[in-house]
Specification:
mainly alpha; 2 domains; RNA polymerase sigma-70 factor, ECF subfamily; Rna Polymerase Sigma Factor, Chain: A; Arc Repressor Mutant, subunit A
């Protein structure tokens, strides 16, 4: 598409989006999500966190849709939001690793052997137990987000909830899972499960 036509189309999409168009939102989501995801995973090294960055960016787009400056362009706006989100997450990770160093906990190098597989199976079983303890809606939100990789917008549409409510359920579910691991003496893994969930 010619550059002028592309700019015109983008301005039209932003205008539609400002009016609450889900179609315009979906077009922008499909156009930019992969690039944002790749940028996030390059710095965060975690599919889980990269997906959360994508969801946070587009959740903010939806709530800020009426105030976005069309002249500055949506791509620049999205990547500014993504950059700030990534920086905040990196700062949080740094704080958590510093706290771990205080406990003198060291992560062993991951190797593909029987012991590691048994440990993975143990942690996965703990994770499943933690999920089973969640209230029904939190459990469903967590499963849709993590196992089916739906966005908060898509989950909200499927469950009849607002994206903000979906995000609240997800935050509470992750907090419960983290507490569950800590209560079972897995302090180190309680942090890793949020950074490298598979």
């Amino acid at each position: 598409m010619h550059e002028d036509g592309y700019i015109y189309e983008e301005a039209k999409l932003l205008s539609l989006l400002a009016g609450g168009s889900e179609y315009a939102f979906q077009v922008l989501y499909d156009r930019y999500r992969a690039h944002i995801y790749q940028t996030a995973i390059r710095y965060l090294k975690s599919p889980l966190l990269a997906q959360e960055v994508v969801q946070d960016v587009f959740l903010k787009l939806w709530f800020k849709r009426a105030t976005i400056n069309e002249e500055k362009g949506i791509e620049a706006w999205l990547f500014t939001v993504a950059k700030n989100n990534i920086i905040n997450r990196l700062k949080k990770i740094a704080r958590e690793w510093k706290a771990l160093a205080g406990f003198k906990l060291v992560a062993a190098t991951v190797t593909d052997n029987t012991a590691d597989k048994m440990q993975d199976a143990f942690y996965n079983e703990l994770l499943q137990q933690a999920i089973r303890e969640l209230p029904e809606q939190q459990q469903k939100v967590f499963q849709l987000a993590r196992f089916e990789q739906l966005t908060y917008i898509q989950i909200g549409e499927q469950m009849g909830l607002s994206p903000l409510t979906v995000k609240t359920h997800m935050s509470r579910a992750l907090a419960h899972i983290r507490r569950f691991f800590e209560e079972h003496g897995e302090i180190f893994f309680s942090i890793l499960v949020l950074l490298s969930f598979r």
